[in-house]
Amino acid sequence: MTTSTALLLADLAGVAVFAASGASAAVAKRLDLFGVVFVGFVAALGGGIVRDLVIAEVPPLAFADWRYAGTAAVTAAAIFWLHPQFARLRTTVLVLDAAGLSLFTVTGTVKALEAQVPPVGAGLIGMITGIGGGLVRDLLTGEIPVVLRREIYALAALAGAILVVLLEGLGHTGPIPLTAAAVLVFGVRLLALRRRWSAPVPPLRPPPTGAPGPPPQ
Amino acid sequence: MTTSTALLLADLAGVAVFAASGASAAVAKRLDLFGVVFVGFVAALGGGIVRDLVIAEVPPLAFADWRYAGTAAVTAAAIFWLHPQFARLRTTVLVLDAAGLSLFTVTGTVKALEAQVPPVGAGLIGMITGIGGGLVRDLLTGEIPVVLRREIYALAALAGAILVVLLEGLGHTGPIPLTAAAVLVFGVRLLALRRRWSAPVPPLRPPPTGAPGPPPQ
Amino acid sequence: MTTSTALLLADLAGVAVFAASGASAAVAKRLDLFGVVFVGFVAALGGGIVRDLVIAEVPPLAFADWRYAGTAAVTAAAIFWLHPQFARLRTTVLVLDAAGLSLFTVTGTVKALEAQVPPVGAGLIGMITGIGGGLVRDLLTGEIPVVLRREIYALAALAGAILVVLLEGLGHTGPIPLTAAAVLVFGVRLLALRRRWSAPVPPLRPPPTGAPGPPPQ
Q: Are B112 and B121 a contacting pair, CB within 8 Å?
């Protein structure tokens, strides 16, 4: 399997899991059929469209290659009809989201490097490709974006993007090192979820002695 | 009248009705003069800017041709000063919105086809051009986007975009078939509004026997 | 100092103040370290990315030149650790925001003119470059965008953008006229804040005689 075939498959797999993630979030909000397909579509293709715009690959793949839109629409519609019972839906969204994050981060970084974007910019584009779909999904379904609440989300993507940039700089391209980077993102994200890792919040000034501190907003 | 003149006029008419739609929504929220003009501007030109970016027509028409920004600003300001009394404003917004949806869907699809985007992608770009302005207007004025609540909205646009793609594929271009597609979108949307058509929502698991089901959110 | 060096420094200064503005808003919302850096990053670079996309300068400077992302990240992180006590934070955000608005409006307008965008479009792109970062910052932190509430915000940017377009048309380029335009935007914005200038709101129909009018929303 060539790198370009592997990239296509990884990209379509990312489209499918993000479409499922978006559709599940929309089902949880009780949106109707079109709303479910639309949120799935945007979650699956939004990050890639932004990536293609900033690397001047136009029209973006989401519009140039019907397999992208087709994968997103079929997956989201399948989730609408076949979704499991509601109890475990929130966990499903989080795991699918972690998988999409890892796949899109890696393919986004590789595409930016191939488009001659310098290393720092390519890593940022990879991270944004990874987190963009979930960000838009959360805005559309009225949730505070997960990326702002759980810092290990984007940090996991950033770690994977940096690993891809370093590996490419050292000449390690091809499916195996890229898979390793994807596994890194997925693993860090799942561990962070499971162990409830969190980043520091801004220091508060100490409350006056004897008085209770203000409640956090 | 040439196709290109007809497209320009249809595009400017779409700009005017979406500017009026955005401005009316902003008036209903009691925004001030600049807020009204700004929401009108974004509602009128947002969808087209996205369309031009994905088909690599830069700078987008909204910036390259002053008649677009001028039409949007004058229309929105006129709505601010001259808007009718408030009672029927919500209906006005919905009808103007349906007109803008139909005009932008058709011109967006045609422009994408002319930019050599494949049929599926061109239809999607047409639909996004049509629904983009209303989506942004709703986000800016704090409403849940109409496209997520009333599925026949984007579905009407999609039907019109598919009709344009089919007609172009059969060699039927020019104002008359395009007008037919625009009328289709407008008519379907108004019928859906009038008859309160709605799409299915996700199946719920049956409630425990004897207990009432949970109310939908 | 050449115009291009002056533009770079003004641009990086704008990045720093908008990153500080975004980070301060995120600190006020008690977001964690990554959330603070992310909001700072988007507030600092969002307007410029949109500007570069519409003038077809790809990849956008934010990704092509690591000094942009570096300035934003370091500034936002510094605000996280070193931010002053909370009492005066809101004022700090507003003043930094006014400075970013003035710098980005001027550099955005100049870049659009250099990319051969016609005058009206160049002024609009300059205004959008200036107001884009604050708009995204407010959406991400759950505030109604300041641009919709305080009309003198974008109006100040528009005045500065028009001044830049006029000065360039008259052949007055270089740091001194551009600095004058930046000072104009900053001054108008601060005056508007200090004196609570506001634009008219839509006329209401007079309440029935003897009955109190409805409270404004």
A: yes
Q: How many domains does chain C have?
A: 1
Neighbour count for residue A63 (Cβ, 10 Å): 25
**Residue B132 falls within a domain, yes or no?**
yes
Task: Look up residue B162 and give its two tokens.
Answer: 């598919």
C25, C137 in Cβ contact below 8 A? yes
**Angle CA(A9)–CA(A13)–CA(A15) in degrees, nearest 5?**
115
Assign C28 a pLDDT band (cuts: 50, 70, 90). confident
Chain A residues whose beta carbon lies within 8 Å of the beta carbon of residue B217: 29-30
Whether residue B39 is contained in a domain is answered as yes
pLDDT above 70 (res A27): yes
Q: Which of residues 185-214 of B touch A (CB under 8 A)?
A: 198-203, 205
- A122 interfacial to chain C (CB closer than 8 Å): yes
Using a CB-CB cut-off of 8 Å, the residues of chain A touching C85 are: 205
Comparison of pLDDT for C69 and A205, the residue scoring more:
C69
How much is the pLDDT for C71? Answer: 96
The rounded radius of gyration (Å) of the Cα atoms in chain C is 18
- Shortest CB distance from B35 goes to which of C148, C205, C217? C148
Residues B125-138 have a mean pLDDT of: 89
Q: How confident is the model at residue A214 (pLDDT cuts 50, 70, 90)?
A: very low
User: Is residue C204 situated within a structural domain?
Assistant: no
Cβ contacts of B168 within 8 Å, gap of 6 or more: B110, B113
What is the distance of C-alpha C42 from the center of its chain? 12
pLDDT in tens, B20-51: 889 988 888 888 888 889 889 999 999 999 99
- Residues C49 and C47: their CA atoms lie apart, in Å, by 6
The answer, yes or no, to whether the previous bond of A212 is cis (omega within 30 of 0) is no
pLDDT at A65: 93
How far is C40 from C26, CA to CA, in rounded Å? 8
Q: Summarize the confidence of residues A121-135 as an average pLDDT.
A: 91
Tell me which residue of A158, A132, A170 sits closest to A53, measured CA to CA: A132
Tell me if the bond preceding C59 is cis, omega within 30° of 0: yes
Closest partner residue to A117 among C59, C80, C86, by Cβ? C59
Residue C214 lies in a domain: no
- Interchain CB distance below 8 Å, A69 and B120: yes
The reply to whether residue C35 touches residue A118, judged by beta carbons under 8 angstroms, is no
Q: Are the C-beta atoms of residues B156 and B127 closer than 8 Å to each other? A: no
pLDDT greater at residue A172 or residue C200: A172
pLDDT at A3: 63
Please state, in angstroms and rounded to a whole number, the distance separating the CA atoms of residues B149 and B142: 14
| Domain around C110 | 3-195
For the whole model, what pTM was predicted? 0.82
Compare CB distances from B63 to C124, C149, C217 and report the shortest one's residue.
C124
CB C93 within 8 A of CB C134: no
What pLDDT shows up at residue B208? 40
